[in-house]
Amino acid sequence: MLAQGGQVALAVVSSLLLLWQQAASIEVPQDLKQPPTIVKESSKDYIVDPRDNITIECEAKGNPAPTFTWLRKGKVFNTGKDPRVKMRKRSGTLEINFRNGEAPLWPKELLEQVLVTEGQPLVLACNPPPGLPPPYTFWMNSGMIPIQQDKRVSMGLNGDLYFSNVLPKDGHMDYCCNARFLPTPSIQWFKKGGDLPAQKVKLENFNKTLQMASVSEEDAGDYVCMATSQTGSIRHTIHVQVKGAPYWLDMPINLVLAPDENGRLICRASGNPKPHVQWLVNGEPVERSPNNPSREMMGDTIIFHSVQSGSSSVYQCNASNQHGYLLANAFVSVLDMTPRILGPKNQLIKVIKNNRTFLDCPFFGSPLPELRWFKNGQGSGLDGGYYRVYINGTLEIKRARVEDQGTYTCVVSNILGAVENQVILEVKEPTRIIQGPENQSAKRGSAARLDCKVKSDPTMLVNVTWLKDDQPLSQAWRWRREDEALSIPDVQEGHAGVYTCLAASDIDQDVSSARLTVLEEVSYVPSVSSGLPAAFVSPGYLETTTAAPSQSSCYPGDLNSVILPLSPFINYQFQVIAINAVGQSAPSLPSPRFMTSAAAPDAVPRGLRGWGTKKNNMEITWEPLLNLERNGPNLRYMVWWRRKDTEDEWSDMTTVGTKHMVHHTDTYVPYQLKIQARNDLGSGPESNIALGYSGED
Question: What's the rounded mean pLDDT across residues 302-330?
Fold first, then answer.
């Protein structure tokens, strides 16, 4: 709906009756003739910027299909005669284009020219406003470029610009005198007679703006902002009144009544000021509608007594005040109809033991039928204890047990007849992994086994699948399943990762995961040619991809293999030195080169900072990771930034370099920064938030 000139435009749909909106828990079946129902509409008035387009929604359903008509200021609005308005096909939704063909232009400012003869002296007055302490003044042109001063051109203590003698190059269209007052005051906010609602209040724009979310009536009052500096303070009081558009307390809902039944529609709303409630029937104010002896008006309530066939109608409730309005539609349907089951017949439902279970029995009839549930065709109706019956016909079993299996029958009846439907319930044991895989380490070339023993309901088919790093396993990985366990006969580097066993039936599943770590060994043959036993051996390893120095560790001399801590994604060579009481041997020849497996980064880039090179930019820089910290191929950096003290979304970018320039910033404002290293194996940890500043002026 669109408010224009104090009037309200209404969408009218013509068919059997006017618009109605679906709201009842028991619905009229779609194959019956019924008046139109609004299913989508614009809920508020529009305040329009002429540069924007707007869409006013009006969608409806009904049998037969509805047609749509719009009223504007109380008269039929022909959408075909206004080139700015288009109504969608098979819909009442309007698309309105307010844009003009040409954008408006700002008016030009006219400045008085100062004419002077070359060689003559000249004074350009500044006349800054007075202040304590006195302002700092300076001259610039409109491009924010300072006016150069020298022994010929200078500025006086009062801010005036003095020319000893004027030259042709002094000719400019815009000399601007600027005044800056210091010191900058600090700003605080108070509420008279109480505290600021801390959970609602947010201070922005360097405390100059107080924003309050979810305003309620208790937020009304006097708010004070106080600006304080070393020279004193000043206060400003803002009086806040909280007014409210209407909101629902009780919204009218659809009624289905049989002849001679009673019922009521209630329309209650609140707001500030209190809303006025108006009732309409079939699109006309109720006071102008044909007399209906079965209808009694009582303010915000309509009471129906002994309704008669043929009196079905659409009622609208409009609750409005000066700040807005609410409109609700309710269809009062007077029908004689035997009960009908609306859902599928004779369903088989399988559930897991001890779970909440719902058996559905959707129905319709008029008068409103009575519904009862029975189990195995015996006993009284089921309701209470383990069972709960909902108004829409659903039976809830709060905790399904094995003894709850059986055939459940719902019986729906009214004075015109009865109908029933059956649901067969089977209660199954849950699927559980009773022995899952465990974290383990395996040497390269050895065998590994990951267990997955499953217990399930004997009547259910359970399928067990394995995943590696959340991806289904392929036979190319050289593995085999043995009694649902996973065996890897020849462990290699690529087998390292997280393995997940997934056991799934038709109605439930269970998972268990474990990590397999592949160990690398350095092996060697101890020498015995010296005649003295070797007390220690020292396997040294040379990192050949970087300029890092060699490393070494000592181990007992009776070993011929050791496990060494190595960095990921590095080329290594190994040498062994034997040491005894006499001394140490010469190093062995270097081993062949060996590349360790890659991994995601585990280091955070250091030295993150942001600073401006110009008044409207900020350069973000950081130190690159060391080669030993790269851990994998295609190292790159993810950088985030946003203005401090705002709720703005983070901006981000990815680069392989060590800096990024942020353009079009405000002058000297703080920014939050963070960074993360990434490679083809994944992402490393995020840095702590650092603080940077855009450029000064």
Answer: 92
Count CA atoms closer than 13 A to 171's CA, side-chain side. Answer: 9
pLDDT tops 70 at residue 540: no
Give the Cα separation of 261 and 435 in Å (integer). Answer: 64
Residue pLDDT, tens place only, 589-636 = 888 888 888 889 989 999 999 999 888 999 999 999 998 899 999 999
What are 154's strand-pairing partners? 162
- Closest to 541 (Cα-Cα) out of 583, 592, 579, 494: 592
Rounded Cα–Cα distance for residues 584 and 488 (Å): 41
What is the DSSP code (8-state) at residue 624? P
Q: In this structure, how many other beta carbons lie within 10 angstroms of the beta carbon of residue 472?
A: 9
pLDDT above 90: percentage of residues in the chain? 46
* Closest of 558, 559, 551 to residue 575, by C-alpha: 551
124 and 175 in contact (C-beta within 8 Å)? yes
Residue type, position 543, single letter: E
Backbone angles phi, psi at 410, to 5 degrees: -105, 130
Measured CA to CA in angstroms, residue 82 lies from 4, 50, 88, 96, 97 at distances of 16, 16, 14, 10, 10
Cα-flanking dihedrals φ and ψ of residue 416, to 5°? -95, -10
Torsional sign, CA 619, 622, 623, 627? negative
Spatial separation of the C-alpha atoms in residues 552 and 534, rounded to whole Å: 17
Strand partners, 517: 441
**How far is 211 from 206, CA to CA, in rounded Å?**
12
Residue 1 has pLDDT above 50, yes or no: no
Residue among 439, 436, 440 nearest 453 (CA): 436
What span, in angstroms and rounded, lies between the C-alpha atoms of 626 and 265? 74
Whether 604 and 675 have beta carbons less than 8 Å apart is answered as: yes
**How confident is the model over 229-241, as a mean pLDDT?**
88
Asked if residue 393 lies in contact with residue 360, where contact means CB atoms within 8 angstroms, the answer is: yes
Tokens of 515: 């990590």
* Closest to 543 measured CA to CA, from 564, 520, 574: 574
